[in-house]
Amino acid sequence: MKDIFDALEKGHNEFLNSLHDATAWSSSQRFTALQAQATEISNMAELMGRGLTMHLTNMTDHHKSRWQESLSAYGKAFEGLTRAQSGGSLHSAFENYWQDAAQRIVLTMDTLRQRGDIFIEHEEAGCPPVLIYDYDVVMDGADLPRPCCYMLLKIKQPADGKQRATKSWKRPYIIIDPRAGHGAGIGGFKPDSQVGVALRDGHPVYFVAFRRMPEKGQTLADVTHAEAAFVRKVSELHPDAPNPVVTGNCQGGWATLLLAATNPDLTGPIILNGAPVSTWAGRVGENPMRYNGGILGGTWNAMYYSDLGHGVFDGADIVQNFELLNPSRNYFGKYYDLYARVDTEPHRFLEFERWWGGYFLLNEAEMKWIVEQLFVGNRLSKNEAQLEPGRNVDIKQIRAPIIVFASFGDNITPPQQALNWIIDSYADEREIVIRGQRIIYMVHDQVGHLGIFVSSKIAKKEHTEVTSTLKTIEALPPGLYEMTIDDYEGDILDRSFTVSFHERKMEDLKAMDDGRDDEIPFAAVARASEQQAEFYDVCMRPLVQAGVTEQSADLRRKTHPLRMQRELFSSMNPFLNMLPGLAERVKEDRKPVTADNPFVELERVNAALIEQSMDLFRDLRDTMYENLFYTIWGSPYMRWFGRTKQPGRTLMKKEELRSLPPVQTALMHIEEGGFREAVVRMLILLADSRGNVRRDRLERSSRVLTQDEPFKSLTPDERSFMLQEQTLIVEFAPEKAITSLPKLLRTKEERELASRVVRYIPGSIDEMTSHTLETLQKFHKVLGLPPASEDVTEDPLVRPKEVAKTEKVDSPEKSGNTEKTAEVAASTTKAPQKVSQRKAAQKTSPRRRAAAKPATRGRRRTTKNSEEPAE
């Protein structure tokens, strides 16, 4: 005890020190401290009031309109009843409705029985992927030095002839599905899916799947090592193709970030669909799921449930949490939809339920990492996540383009959680440029979380456009962009969308959020979670583990409510033996009621009211959760308590960015280079003046920079380095970038040819903005050329005898890496063009080769372009 009192006297207790210091404060100091606390309380009260107001406003508006619709529907239903009564057909209408309802009940119950049978069959088979495509197992993670339950599948081309033949030289696609309680395959369980889109475009498609039970001792580090081995294997199988595209869905999204950050040389573009990365983020009054850690418990909860599972966490608990997020849909709506459309709905219902009901397991170490590092600690966004001891995961190490797909309709991963890591990782958009990074995001207005990677509409539009745009996306200068799909032409079956890329700033991302003050209380939750986990590990875990056996853990999993509801409603239940025969007789004698039956309308209204009442309960619950969270964790003391967990990554000041070595190196060589550097610099200046790039312009730019000499002879790494260097010059010295152009283009022929190239890519002069045209005229003035007045509609770098191929090609040797274009006629300035091309085709400087060398992959052919030919 003496040591304790000595420690207190020596000032080792920070909290008591603060109290002691407070007693020595003057009156003005005390007043200042109290004023600061009052300000914090006032700010938190304002935040809670804002959230409560938003909740009440949304509930009032939403439920008011639904009540009005229900009352109107009630009125129509009663009008129908009145007409039927006056016409003497009320009795027959009721009789027809009752017969139809009874038949639908039988068919619905039989469908639920089939769901139970499918569940049991799926479990006994080990819950294989729910892919509709045949596949071969290329690699098994269980055979690796660090074994895990993951495996690499090669998707086979369907024999229906609807997809193009797979071409080994095209960029492979690797799809990583989420391991969040469910099994693998949701990215390819229907034709219009991510797998289907890539197959239709002729890409080799690989799928990262996983078994139901993890390997003993498996960690997320083992999983990341296995995924890296899978990517290497795919690259070996396609030596003539660019680096694979890696697509991560939901939890597979942050897994893809881990893969790309720890292995920056392996992947091509990475696509993150609905991936939660900045897990504290969200809008007050809209995103309640993020409060679960502070209301339901932090890391110790995952540890406790893993102990009950004898070291294994049951994914059914995660799925149950998802279902509770929207109880009206999961506990009533989907079953009523099945009942109401039982003649057409069962197939779709059973296919989805096969995936939804496949419950997978995670090791305790995996689940603890996910909760501790991501959802409670938010460490990945703050550069504090450690995949292994002493090995931090730095998102800024990623070199491949990053495409992020989010939606305002996603209540599990709102756009703020999908995008705020960009704000947390980079000082501003210029640092993204300095690091040679391309980050493209796309935000949908209303699709839900599952719809991002399940919806056929999203697959036909967003995923198709992303896939086609990847052919040219690497032609974008480094920076932050928003991808928009603006409009379309053609009928419903053959729509053509207009895709544009708009330069964005950090302020555009911040504008999606309502501020970051609402994230401060999460720091206190993170610190409390660590302390609770430590207390549980030392004091409670030995007692829990002593009372758990493998048999008791297996019994708990088998009696989980989600499993029980399927097993009890299956053919194992003897009371349901009569259902199959009864359902067959009903189908033979099926008499569906007419759509204008008044009792059918009455049924729909009652179902809508039941669903609305459950939604009202959900909204009230979410409102209570949010206010309870901020009441507990938003006080001044809790802010003080969580202060050690608040600091994020230390970002450079904006004025310090110019001093970074890549910027200084680029500026030192602002007057060095030749035709290639000049053309790239002018194109970047024009794009910067527009602020956005349409896909057709991007495709022309990509064609020139990858298929026309003197650019064609560049390796992908040399081309990328040149783009980055010229982007830095334009970003940090835009005026000198223009005035130094004559030093790069020394002859009149070179200047005229360069002018024609930079006029060809943007398109018609009439379509240029005034700022773009002004920039173009600056080029002509500084180069001593007459003002630009004519359009250039044909590629000036294509030699007169070259004709673009109008047919699709089957191999890179035949295609010469050319995109499908219209026939290109001879240029009007033939002789000067040939001369200038010979002069412009200078060799790459040793400095540029040395800079590009570290990223070059030795086993790949250096003559292969960075993208496959467009199809």
Please provide a written account of the structure:
The protein contains 35 helices and 15 strands. It is α/β, with parallel strands linked by helices. Among the domains are: 304 residues, Rossmann fold, CATH 3.40.50; 196 residues, no CATH class. Strand 5, helix 7 and strand 6 form a beta-alpha-beta unit. It is globular. The N terminus and C terminus are likely disordered. This is Poly(R)-hydroxyalkanoic acid synthase, class III, PhaC subunit.
Topology:
Blueprint: H1 2-9, H2 14-23, H3 27-86, H4 90-124, E1 135-140, E2 150-155, E3 173-176, H5 194-200, E4 205-210, H6 220-237, E5 245-249, H7 251-262, E6 270-273, H8 292-296, H9 299-308, E7 312-314, H10 315-325, H11 327-340, H12 346-356, E8 361-363, H13 364-375, E9 386-388, E10 391-392, E11 402-407, H14 415-425, H15 429-434, E12 438-444, H16 449-454, H17 456-469, E13 479-489, E14 496-503, H18 506-510, H19 520-546, H20 550-558, H21 561-568, H22 579-588, H23 598-633, H24 636-641, H25 661-668, H26 675-690, E15 692-694, H27 695-707, H28 716-732, H29 734-739, H30 741-744, H31 748-760, H32 770-782, H33 812-815, H34 830-840, H35 846-852
Parallel strand pairs: 3-4, 3-5, 5-6, 6-11, 11-12, 12-13
Antiparallel strand pairs: 1-2, 2-4, 7-8, 9-10, 13-14, 14-15
Helix pairs in contact: 3-23, 4-11, 4-12, 4-21, 4-22, 5-17, 9-13, 9-19, 11-23, 25-28, 26-28, 26-31, 26-32, 28-35
